[in-house]
Specification:
The chain is α+β, with helices and mostly antiparallel strands and about 500 residues long. It has 13 helices and 19 strands. Among the domains are: about 1-95, Phosphorylase Kinase, domain 1 (2-Layer Sandwich); about 400-470, no CATH class. It is about 35% helix and about 15% strand. It starts with 9 loop residues before the first helix and ends with a helix.
């Protein structure tokens, strides 16, 4: 059927799209909106449709569409067209029936073996090679953005934060991506190129092999401190994996991007050259289908599978970050309690593997509380797609461990301010320290020993409040940018109605 349907024609777009496409069910959520499974009525071909509210950042949406239209590769999710309906933008894309690698891991409740990892990485690298040769950066590579077809072909998806390199701007200076997968140069905002995707691929390899990326048990803001200042992460138990896989990860996770391997070079790596055929993945995909069918038939009688009038294809899967409370941690993210239908996928020990859901994918299940893509602007402020994630707070569980944290030196008074105004000024000062620390990881001449315990505790206690202030500033700037866009859309619609 694919040969008979390559795109939505101008003629079809002029018609009522309900007569062209049939929405079947809601399958998830992307970086800017909900995603539905649909069928092209004439050919019967299955499609994925992303519904994006007009209130979303139209500039980013247009960028995503532009990048998808330019891509013509079997390793990139295909774009078929887009249209407006009920004040929403609907983007029609290729449907990948097996879902994301992250979905598959959660549904099976276990990690992938080396053969499966090698096949997925091979085709992911082919997608990256294509993008990079076209001077495009994906900037959000992770298991949740690698989709599998029912045949086992891996494809890159979700270009919500992808960037186009140009002759005049060869490198990006904005911090965009999902925190745990970010390359050091992205966090430091020193400009980054296509090799930032390679670092993210290395983190994704660890994610697929261990069930979650490094640092995922701690608050994203603290992870942003740690990634540039600590040595590149490795597998927790390197002896569990072959030397070739360990070497592959080490080639990806090189802090100096100039010394990092390219996608083309990694395709020639021994671990990738020895990858099996995609048939290796078919057993895994069949297992996922069986689990989905079994879950559908065992749903409680009082549980609805409809959401806003649309059938939900997959039962809810717990996508919350799991924290091992037995371990002593300095800072622990707090998450809201949720009730899920399928409770046995939160953590499942198998004979050989232990999988932990890491709450980190962009294509999320309906009930998930994910670590969505984070965008940190030039002035150091951050925004997150998930409003709930903005409410996370830091919890100091072991004050003795605080003295091991390094933060920049300040000559300001160590006394905690008492008035709201002086407190706000103090928090802005700490925010400047945070940004300065991120931009210069090698400046360790002013270490934590120069602070009193009181100073350290004050700064840690204020980090959440700093984040809230900066988030409000970002929200205000966003509203000011969005208003003229919405006004222009409204004016164009009025002019169309007059004609």
């Amino acid at each position: 059927m694919t040969e008979t349907f390559d795109r939505l024609t101008e003629a079809s777009l002029a018609q009522n799209m309900d007569n062209i496409l049939e929405i079947l069910c809601k399958i998830g959520k992307g970086s800017y909106g909900c995603v539905y499974k649909a069928k092209h009525r004439e050919t019967g071909q299955l499609l994925a449709i992303k519904q994006i509210p007009v209130e979303s950042d139209l500039q980013e949406i247009v960028k995503e569409i532009s990048i998808m239209k330019q891509c013509d590769s079997p390793h990139i999710v295909k774009y078929f067209g887009s249209y407006f309906k009920d004040s929403d933008l609907w983007i029609v894309m290729e449907y990948c029936g097996a879902g994301s690698v992250s979905d598959i891991m959660k549904l099976r409740g276990k990690i992938l073996n080396e053969q499966e990892i090698a096949v997925i990485l091979k085709y992911t690298l082919k997608g990256l090679q294509y993008l990079h040769l076209c001077s495009k950066i994906h900037r959000d590579i992770k298991a949740g953005n690698i989709l599998l077809t029912n045949d086992g072909h891996a494809k890159l998806a979700d270009f919500g934060v992808a960037g186009q390199l140009t002759d005049t701007m060869a490198k990006r200076n904005t911090m965009i991506g999902t925190p745990f997968w970010m390359a050091p140069e992205v966090i430091q905002e020193i400009g980054h190129g296509v090799l930032a995707d390679i670092w993210s691929l290395g983190i994704t390899t660890i994610e697929i092999a261990e069930g979650k990326p490094p640092y995922s048990d701690i608050h994203p803001m603290r992870a942003i401190f740690m990634i540039p200042s600590r040595p590149p992460p490795t597998f927790k138990d390197m002896s569990r994996w072959t030397p070739t896989l360990n070497d592959f990860v080490s080639k990806c996770l090189v802090k100096n991007p100039d010394a990092r391997s390219t996608a083309t070079e990694l395709l020639n790596h021994e671990f990738i050259r020895n990858a099996k055929d995609i048939s290796v993945l078919r057993q895994m995909i069949d297992e996922v289908r069986e689990i989905q069918e079994r879950q559908k038939t065992t749903l409680p009688s009082n549980t609805t599978t409809f959401h806003n009038g649309i059938l939900t294809e997959r039962p809810f899967v717990n996508d919350g970050t799991l924290t091992n409370k037995n371990q002593e941690e300095t800072i622990v993210p707090k998450h809201q309690q949720q009730t899920f239908i399928n409770t046995n996928t939160n953590r499942q020990d198998t004979e050989t593997d232990t999988f932990q859901s890491s709450s980190c994918n962009t294509m999320i299940e309906l009930s998930s509380e994910s670590s969505d893509t984070m965008i940190i602007n030039e002035n150091g402020t951050e925004t997150e797609n998930d409003a709930d994630s903005q409410q996370e707070t830091l919890k100091i569980t072991n004050k003795q461990q605080v003295t091991n944290i390094k933060i920049p030196y300040s000559n300001q008074s160590s006394k905690r301010p008492t008035t709201d105004r002086t407190k706000e000024d103090f928090m802005k000062l700490i925010a400047q320290e945070v940004r300065a620390y991120n931009k210069n990881e090698d400046d360790f001449q002013h270490t934590v020993e120069q602070f009193s315990v009181e100073q350290i505790e004050q700064r840690l206690a204020l980090l959440d409040e700093i984040m809230e202030i900066e988030l409000k500033e970002v929200q205000n700037r966003f509203q000011s940018k969005r208003k003229p866009i919405l006004d222009a859309i409204k004016l164009k619609k009025q002019n169309q109605n007059h004609h």
